[in-house]
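User:
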Amino acid sequence: MADTFNAALAERGFGLTLYLDLCRPAVLSELVLSAVKDRASRLKRAFPGTQQHEWLGFLSKAMGFPGWNALAAECKKLSNLVPADRTFDPNLDRIPPEFAATLVLVVEPNPESRPSDAFLAEMRMFCEKLAQFSGQPEATLLDKMASWWGVREWAAFMARDPFLAKKPFYGFEVYDQLDEDGSFYEAGQLVISGACEQALEQLQVAVTKLHEAGADPVPLIKEIFEGNAEQQPLLQAGIGLAQIQMERGQVLEALKVLTHLDNQVSALMPKNFKGELHYLVPENNWYLLARYLLMKAYLQNADIPAAVKVCRRNVQLDKRSDFWNAAWLPMLLLMQGNANAAMLAIRKNIDLDACNAAEYHLPYIVAAL
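Assistant: Predicted structure:
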């Protein structure tokens, strides 16, 4: 058995989880007590003739505690680990490892994706123990647990498919970003749903297996991308497909894929959005990569005006990443025969690090003036 809360979380496949509240012992204590009381009340109604206090004990024992009173006492100790203001406590090892077992009640699965195998295994183990202590059928308890999260039976959990999710894979948020000089500027970020994360994980596993078998992954990636392109485009799938197509000289096909991705993401942004997309946000970085590849595809197709147009927008969206949009713009303008605009682009963005890479363009620009 794991001897720390961190290790216990990892042992169950939760890692540190993405739930920051679980890092706060006082909050975790409240979540556990509230969840156990709620589930005990529901199970009392689901099994006539049983009492709520009985289910409090059964649930506590199924999670590895001697009983309800013991669990309540441990929660009280847990709540005293941090100040009353519930300040974030980075020392997770102060939380008893036994509390990792409570996450099966505290962590609610995403409603539009199949729970992870680790989480499903934890739920099965919990229900098996609950059946032993309560004397109720394990299959019935599994169905009741599934009903807590919006499905009628356990089998419905297993049948969930992230590619069939009704909610959008992606959303877009606008916020004010603090700059180095203390001022604020408009920024935005792409956000992805849990179903999207799971779809990407499934795709990655499938592609890895194909690579290991020496098979071409393109048909699978293309099938998934085209099958979901209209309603639920996957950035990584489209980017991967476009990169392979460009490597194989299929530039027009890559342009079609990248243009579609760009249109889908642009539709999520507010009209006339003039802010930046910070590249350190993972989903932003994927979109910025798609825009960079779109520019390169136009360049490979010898459509310089289109490449310039894309690059101008790239400079506006992305001033701080390693895609060097500010360095590409003067080069493209020079290729277009517009030396004055190339010089202006360097002067306008002279404070950007990427423009240092554009310095070697200067002799050619000056010679063309």
